Write a sequence for this structure.
């Protein structure tokens, strides 16, 4: 839940960042090099990504954010990799929120002590820290597309046992395993996305990505609570949502353009 709220705040903040005065030739080259567009979307002209006017920047924050979000979507709709990353991010965020929130609520309803429930978050935090120590090395030696798929495989596999058991020990082990791959996934995927995004679109692209992913994640806890209240569904149904969403994210990474993202030293040779 906290991560979803932070996603939303980050998206709104990013959307209001003023665009820097950049060389239009850079943006033009980026657009010219990307010749693959969805069949229903045409490439946008330079004017569509021009630096906002002073009048636009003096609008109220809400109006400014909406304008930047619309501009960001106009740009994002011409970028197949960026769109795939949004879908993948939404699926993974729902899976993570469902797994973590579902386990915490279920354990609390079962009478598990607050200390033991809190230990789940601590354990996942420690495993994420360990994963971050390995992330740089993994990003350097494994092609980014393969790294994304591998991280999602590990996450999906870590959630499957919870379809069949609700023991505290199993939940603890699965949460530890789930936290390991995400630093490398984030470093590879987000590093590529924002490294390839033109300077004058950074804020708006971030608003599109983080707001879309965050809104879906923010709605997830309500769904989790409803499922846990259903006698015939409960925690098993919650974990089924987590597994299905993580597998869907894996399918997106394998079936779309994300799988072709190379190592960082070759990112300059590919386009969004």
């Amino acid at each position: 839940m906290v991560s979803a709220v932070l996603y939303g705040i980050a998206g709104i903040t990013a959307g209001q960042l003023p665009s820097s005065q950049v060389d239009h030739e850079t943006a033009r080259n980026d657009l010219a090099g990307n010749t693959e567009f969805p069949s229903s979307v045409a490439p946008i002209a330079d004017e569509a990504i021009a630096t906002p006017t002073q009048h636009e920047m003096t609008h109220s924050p809400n109006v400014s954010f909406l304008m930047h979000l619309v501009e960001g979507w106009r740009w994002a709709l011409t970028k197949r990799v960026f769109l795939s990353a949004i879908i993948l991010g939404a699926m993974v965020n729902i899976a993570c929120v469902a797994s973590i929130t579902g386990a915490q609520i279920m354990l609390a309803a079962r009478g598990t002590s607050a200390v033991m429930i809190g230990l789940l978050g601590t354990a996942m935090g420690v495993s994420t820290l360990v994963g971050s120590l390995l992330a740089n090395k993994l990003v350097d030696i494994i092609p980014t597309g393969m790294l994304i798929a591998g991280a999602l495989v590990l996450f999906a596999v870590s959630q499957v046992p919870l379809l069949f058991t609700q023991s505290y020990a199993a939940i603890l082990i699965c949460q530890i395993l789930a936290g390991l791959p995400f630093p490398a996934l984030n470093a590879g995927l987000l590093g590529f996305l924002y490294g390839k995004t033109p300077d004058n679109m950074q804020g708006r692209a971030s608003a599109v990505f983080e707001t879309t992913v965050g809104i879906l994640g923010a709605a997830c806890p309500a769904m989790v609570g409803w499922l846990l209240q259903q006698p015939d569904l409960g925690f098993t149904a919650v974990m089924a949502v987590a597994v299905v969403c993580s597998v869907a994210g894996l399918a997106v990474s394998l079936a779309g353009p994300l799988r072709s993202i190379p190592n960082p030293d070759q990112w300059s040779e590919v386009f969004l």
Residues 1-52, 54-59 have pLDDT under 50 and may be disordered. The CA atoms of residues 107 and 113 lie 8 Å apart. The first helix runs from residue 2 to 15. The chain has eleven helices and no strands.
